[in-house]
Fold:
Amino acid sequence: MADWTKNSRACTTLWTTLFNMQQLSTNFNDSGDLKINDLTFYNALGSSDLRRQQATIIADQLDNIFRVGRGAKYESEIDRTKAMVGMVTILTDESKFVKDLASNVDDSYNFWDESK
Structure:
């Protein structure tokens, strides 16, 4: 699991995107330890199929915002399908944290002016 830090483009971009999507309302520092089931899309009473569908919608929005709005490119060996599967896997696991999603995002996308 990667560190949740303001020095990471994946962390800051994910946080601002989720904040603007109204998926979370916590400040940056507190958001990394937020569990996935605390995001607004997550319906604990919904079926696993419904949660997967909702997670896929969120992952699709994130992918489009990262690439079109933020100019991110896929990392080598990553394509849209792999990026989506990675995000959906985390977004459907209530034991995961936002920082786990950020780690996956960091492995899948190269953000503008990001140093590796």
Notes: The chain is about 55% helix and 5% strand.
